[in-house]
Amino acid sequence: MKIGIAGGGIAGSYLAFSLSKNHVVEVYEEKTRERVGEDCACGTSMRTLEKYASLLNRAPSDYVRHTCSEFLSKVFENRDAVTFNKNKLILDFLEKSEADVNFKQKVERENLRGFDLVIDATGCCRSLLPPPRNELERNWVCPCFQADVISEELPKDFYFDLKKWVSSGYSLKERIEQK
Question: Which SUPFAM superfamilies match (predicted)?
Fold first, then answer.
């Protein structure tokens, strides 16, 4: 099967890595190689990072930027939270894939005509799919959280307490301003 993936971020790079073993895969990423994944930091549990690093035959420490001493939240609990080098993980997935990766190429519908399957992995901007609609229309939107930390030193702990879920937004800053 010939598969076209719009977006070479976390989701697109993982899909390219996973699917290119058995299919012909092309990835279209709007950003340059150096800038892919730089739009926000990424955090996860160490357990999750270990799982993905092992797929690449790498140590999780190759990606860790900061290990939280404690992560507190009323939304979810995670005692082994880390932030990681998103650009490095993305590029490693793309390099270990057998996909043809097109950086600095805006995805256009006409570029994707010859594929058996096209996947929109462009996140909230949804280059190919229509914008997400509200919950009443039964669309499921995965909530994600973003926080800007302006500091010379990273915090030792993280704490999130979101009062209101906003499915159409992306940044925590926008959510805080809406309160």
Answer: Nucleotide-binding domain (SSF51971)
Distance CA 151, CA 135 (A): 36
**Distance separating alpha carbons of residues 129 and 46, to the nearest angstrom:** 32
Q: What is the pTM of this model?
A: 0.74
Rounded to whole angstroms, the Cα distance separating 50 from 150 reads 28
What are the DSSP E strand ranges found in 7-156? Answer: 24-28, 42-45, 64-67, 70-73, 81-84, 100-102, 117-120
Strands 70-73 and 100-102: unpaired
Q: Name residue 89's amino acid.
A: L
Tens digit of each residue's pLDDT (9 = 90 or more) over 23-34: 999 999 988 888
